Every structure is written in C-alpha cells, then in structure tokens.
DNA sequence: TGCGATT
C-alpha cells in the first residue's frame, strides 16, 4: 500500500507513471488455457494455424453451451485452433459469445458464409453471428453510429438508407434484452471514405417518424471513448465518484489525483478480497481509465465556463460535482458532527511538510477557528488497513468512535468552503487523500496541491497545513 | 441523445 501511495505521489508530478503499470492491452494474448483444442501431451499434435488465420467472433450463443458443445458445430468447417467462450472476468458468467480461430483461414471464411445469420441456436431469438472479431479488422474508422432511428426500422431498412454510399460490411440495429430496437445502429463500410460520404449525405438530413430529432450519423466510438463511456455508466450506477464530471482542463490535478488514488486504493482492497465483483470491476475500469487519461484523451481543453464544445460522452457541468462515497473500505458512514459550518474547517490528513498556501485571495485570518468536526481515521486505521493489502484478515475498521486531531503537521485547514458544505461533502472530497489509509507525507502534499485553489462555484478553496498549536496563538 | 454480447 505504501508503495502504491508513493507511486501516486510521483504520479502527481509525473503523468507518465501510470503508463508503466502493465495496463496496456495485449492483443492476441488470450491464453490457450481456456482454449479447447490443444491436445495435451504429444507436442507433435499441437495444432499450428495459418499466419493469416482469422479470429472469429461468435455471437448469439445460448448460455448453456460451452466449448465442448460448440465444437461439433464448428468443426465441420475445418480444424479448430482455439475456441473460447467469453466469460465475465469476475463472475465467470457465460457472456453468450465466443472467439473461434481455425487453423486455416479458409475454414473461417467457410464457417462465416455458412453460419453467419444463417441459423438460430435453440433458445435464441436472433441468428448466430459469425464474423471476424473486431481485433482483426481495426475498422473503427469506417464504422458509423446511427442514432435517432425509428424503433420499427429493421436492419434492411437501414441498409437501404446507407447502401448508396458504399459497400456495407455490417449493419446491426442495437437492441435491448427484449429484442426491441434502441433506435440506433452500427453501419460498417469497407472504407473510411464511404463512411464519410454517408455522414455528409445523411447526418441531420431527415427526421424519422417518432424520433425526437433528426437522424444522427457519426463515426462510432473508439475503444477509448467506449471505455470512458462504460466507466461513466458504471460510476453512475454505483453512485460513485464520477471522474468525468470534472473537466480535466480546469481541475486536472484533482481529477488525476483522485483517479490514481482511487484506482490504487480499490485495486489493493480488491487483492485483499473484500470487494464485491462490481467494485472489483470498477477498480479495473478505474485503472484503465486513469491510464487513458494519462495518455491525454480527456485532456481536451474545456472548462465549465469556457463554452467550449464537449467531447462525446463527456459531460461538463457548470459546477463540478462533488464526489460521492466510494462505497468500499467499509466507509459507509460519517463521523458525528457539530453543525453550522464555519468558513474554514480543520481537516486531518496525514502529511508532513509545512506548505505555504498560495491562494491569491488568502487574506482570511486564521482566527476562523479550527472549529470543526474532523473526520479522522485514528492511528489504528492505517495499521489495520495495512493488513488488508497483504493478506486480508478482517474487514477494515469502521468510522472512528471519536473525533481526534491528527499528529502535528498532519492537519489541513480548508478555507472558503461553500455554506452548504457539510462534513459529508468535505469528507467525500478529501477522503481519497488521507482519511482512509494513507499515512505518508506525500498524501498531505497531494491533497494540498490538488485542492488548493480548487474552484467550487464562485469560490476557490484555500488548503494549507494547519499550524502547530503553539504557533497559532500569536497573542 | 440511443454506442454491441468483443479476449
């Protein structure tokens, strides 16, 4: 844990640090352990595949069919090199689809033409899909997303609409679990130019009956955009902090620090075994997303007040939303509290160096009192948390029984909080920096650097280390 | 206003 936190502290200054965490994609690395066809034992029987073999995506598979059930169906087109049913990474649940590689390219082509949309497996209401996996084609630049369709329109209707602009390789209406159209579709052309021509001709060109606005025709999300979108959806579902609610241009330090810290925190907790599958998934997504952001995707210039355009899938609220509880670590409650918010509150984190605040508006006197209400995870907490990341004995301790001031040099003072800011908000905002588990000096630094000057509405926070007690009484 | 069941 402490190692991770050290990494985070560095990451704050060095955006590249997350790119070394092994999150990179590994195309074609799907292990053969799940594969079907490799004969154990005699090496001479290990199948070889053509260099130009095609990995096929198989969709619309009943969930009660596993590799051995599927094998006979596909074997008639050639020798199978690998067949893997896709399963949920955490729950192991059959996802209703598979990847299939034949030893020979020709077999794949035969299977595709014989099976794709040609038959429907028992229990399915849509025909089987047999087509090159996305990883084979790299076709994002010729795939269109079509929105604002009439929900009655079929694949054929959409094809007719788009066929004049090029050769359509794939046309799929997006449907909900009930099979009803979601009013949108993917259309993949053979070339980027064809796709662009369709956009030029069709986007906004007409309004389908029942649609709320004119036809949308645009390039489909890239991998990165898709990851971001999923991340956002999941964060929303879980009621978690939503990193994308905060525009990176304006709040880069905060967002990055949060994301990195949350990713590390959740990952280490996950290793300890406390996280439920959803949260573990969230952790993985979070890491992926942090990595993506480090690569600059979300670094597009935009601020709440700039009036700039918003990239697809990213919302830019006028006021940054306040992170809500993470929902891990057992931190579901909040400390007891005296209400009536002062303009400044002392907040305890675990840090060391004195750090001069540099807010331009920092004329406020210190006599604003450290009145408050300190959500502080006492000394017992870090130790207990340390266990978690190692072996995972007990769940993390809950909220501390009583308010306590942290060691000297570890307490932050926050000025210019909004009136409506209560402990809950305060705690949520600062929790990632120190309340939970981090007792190294870098945490306080991270929090200060990320949060000092952070704008909430019309105000800018002032965050600095609380002065030692004796230094606080100049008179 | 909706981006697939894709290692």
Automatic annotation (TrEMBL):
Positions of region (Disordered): 18-41
CDD domains: RRM1_CELF3_4_5_6, RRM2_CELF3_4_5_6
Gene3D superfamilies, sorted: 3.30.70.330
Segments forming domain RRM: 54-135, 142-222, 414-468
Pfam families: RRM_1
Comp. bias intervals (Polar residues): 18-28
Keyword entries, A-Z: Cytoplasm, mRNA processing, Nucleus, Repeat, RNA-binding
Coarse class of the protein's main subcellular location: cytoplasm
Top-level division of the source organism's lineage: Eukaryota
Database matches in SUPFAM superfamilies: RNA-binding domain, RBD
InterPro entries in the cross-refs: CELF3/4/5/6_RRM1, Nucleotide-bd_a/b_plait_sf, RBD_domain_sf, RRM_dom
Subcellular location: Cytoplasm; Nucleus
PANTHER family for this protein: RNA BINDING PROTEIN
Family to which this protein belongs: Belongs to the CELF/BRUNOL family.
Protein name as annotated: CUGBP Elav-like family member 4 isoform X38
Organism: Microtus ochrogaster (Prairie vole)
Gene responsible for this protein: Celf4
């Amino acid at each position: 844990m402490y190692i991770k936190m050290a990494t985070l502290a560095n990451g704050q200054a060095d955006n590249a640090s997350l790119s070394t965490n092994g999150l990179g994609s590994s195309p074609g690395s799907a292990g053969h352990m799940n594969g079907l066809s490799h004969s154990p034992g005699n090496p001479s029987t290990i199948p070889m595949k053509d260099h130009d073999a095609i990995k096929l995506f198989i969709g619309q598979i009943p969930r009660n069919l596993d590799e051995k059930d599927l094998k006979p169906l596909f074997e008639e087109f050639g020798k199978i090199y690998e067949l893997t049913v896709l399963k949920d990474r955490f729950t192991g649940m059959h996802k209703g689809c598979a990847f299939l590689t034949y030893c020979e390219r020709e077999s794949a082509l035969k299977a595709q033409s014989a099976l794709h949309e040609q038959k429907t497996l028992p229990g399915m209401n849509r025909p089987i899909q047999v087509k090159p996996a996305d990883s084979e084609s790299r076709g994002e630049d010729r795939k269109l997303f079509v929105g604002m369709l009439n929900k009655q329109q079929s694949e054929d209707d959409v094809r007719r609409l788009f066929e004049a602009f090029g050769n359509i390789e794939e046309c799929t209406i997006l449907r909900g679990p009930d099979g009803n159209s979601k009013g949108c579709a993917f259309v993949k052309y053979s070339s980027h130019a064809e796709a662009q021509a369709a956009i030029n001709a069709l986007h906004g060109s007409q309004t389908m009956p029942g649609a709320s606005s004119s036809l949308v025709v645009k390039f489909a999300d890239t991998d990165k955009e898709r990851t971001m979108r999923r991340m956002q959806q999941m964060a929303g579902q879980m009621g978690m902090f939503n990193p994308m609610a905060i525009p990176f241009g304006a709040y880069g330090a905060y967002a990055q620090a949060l994301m990195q810290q949350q990713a590390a925190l959740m990952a280490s907790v996950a290793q300890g075994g406390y996280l439920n599958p959803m949260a573990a998934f969230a952790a993985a997504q979070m890491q992926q997303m942090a990595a993506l952001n480090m690569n600059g995707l979300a670094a597009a210039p935009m601020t709440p007040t700039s009036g700039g355009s918003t990239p697809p899938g990213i919302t830019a609220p006028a006021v940054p939303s306040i992170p809500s509880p993470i929902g891990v670590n057992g931190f579901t409650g909040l400390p007891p509290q005296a209400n009536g918010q002062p303009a400044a509150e002392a907040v305890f984190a675990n840090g060391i160096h004195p750090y001069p605040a540099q807010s331009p508006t920092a004329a406020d006197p210190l006599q604003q009192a450290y009145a408050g209400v300190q959500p502080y995870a006492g000394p017992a907490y870090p130790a207990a948390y340390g266990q978690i990341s190692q072996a995972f004995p007990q769940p993390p301790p809950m909220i501390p029984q009583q308010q306590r001031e942290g060691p000297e040099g570890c307490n932050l003072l926050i000025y210019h909080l909004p009136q409506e800011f209560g402990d809950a908000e305060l705690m949520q905002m600062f929790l990632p920096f120190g309340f939970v588990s981090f007792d190294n000096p870098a945490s306080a630094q991270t929090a200060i650097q990320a949060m000092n000057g952070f704008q909430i509405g019309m105000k800018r926070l002032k965050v600095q280390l609380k002065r030692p007690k004796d230094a606080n009484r100049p008179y």
